[in-house]
Structure to design on (210 residues):
């Protein structure tokens, strides 16, 4: 089949999210200017460069507050800072629960029973229960063009200015222990996938030396 998205897909469900898989999940903690903590997952998320390291995520329209912004976006515009907390198998339920639509005064980290620990360079706290954290400074936001105000998306780009790695997840050879990390990622519909030692494979890239 071929379809132009503007004309509709004709399938029972929009396939788009199943066509870009698996997607890493940005688990974004932020604070508002008064220090109220916010935590939410974003699977329109990725790393965007190596040096300096940068990441991006894309926030759709907020359903609760009058400004039409999701809390993460509003907080980051206010403070210029956020943290990405790694999403793994052990934190999958809390990650999902933290996506609940709540008003801006709700601290989702507390709501889902996670433990905030201080960051070193930004005010937003980190999720203790997950082994990797990126402390980020806002670079810029980009409002994507759309014809329908309900489809408003804003992309947030951040520079990763501090990286925490739990030492228990670093192998003696200096590599990250992916099997122990047990990452999860977003598929289409309500589906996820997990990365285990059985599903990782290696291919040498032609002419590439790290
Ligand atoms: C796994 C997962 C991935 C999600 N990805 C996105 C996303 O990329 N963009 C988005 O706007 N919402 C996404 N959501 C929904 C947000 O997490 C949800 O709207 C949340 O309430 C936003 O919180 P905030 O207003 O506190 O920032 C996702 C939800 C889940 C469970």
């Amino acid at each position: 089949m071929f379809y132009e998205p503007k004309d509709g897909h004709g399938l029972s469900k929009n396939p788009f999210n199943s066509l870009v898989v698996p997607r890493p999940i940005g688990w974004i903690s932020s604070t508002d200017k008064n220090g109220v903590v916010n935590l939410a997952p974003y699977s329109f998320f990725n790393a965007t460069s190596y040096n300096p390291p940068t990441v991006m995520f894309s926030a759709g329209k907020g359903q609760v507050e009058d400004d039409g912004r999701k809390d993460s976006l509003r907080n980051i515009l206010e403070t210029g800072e956020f943290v990405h907390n790694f999403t793994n198998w052990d934190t999958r339920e809390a990650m999902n629960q933290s996506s609940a639509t709540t008003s801006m005064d709700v601290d989702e980290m507390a709501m889902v029973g996670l433990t905030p620990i201080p960051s070193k360079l930004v005010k937003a706290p980190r999720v203790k229960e997950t082994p990797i954290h990126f402390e980020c400074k806002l670079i810029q936001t980009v409002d994507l063009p759309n014809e329908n105000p309900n489809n408003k998306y804003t992309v947030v780009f951040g520079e990763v200015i501090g990286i925490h790695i739990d030492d228990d997840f670093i192998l003696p050879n200096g590599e990250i222990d992916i099997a122990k990390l047990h990452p999860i990622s977003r598929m289409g519909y309500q589906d996820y996938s997990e990365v285990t030692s059985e599903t990782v494979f290696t291919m040498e890239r032609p002419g590439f030396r790290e």
Observations:
- The chain has one domain: 15-196.
- Residues 15-196 form a domain with the Pnp Oxidase; Chain A fold (CATH 2.30.110.10).
- Residues 17 and 188 are 5 Å apart (CA to CA).
- The pocket of flavin mononucleotide is lined by residues 25, 38, 40-44, 58-60, 62, 70-72, 96, 99, 101, 186 (CB under 6 Å).
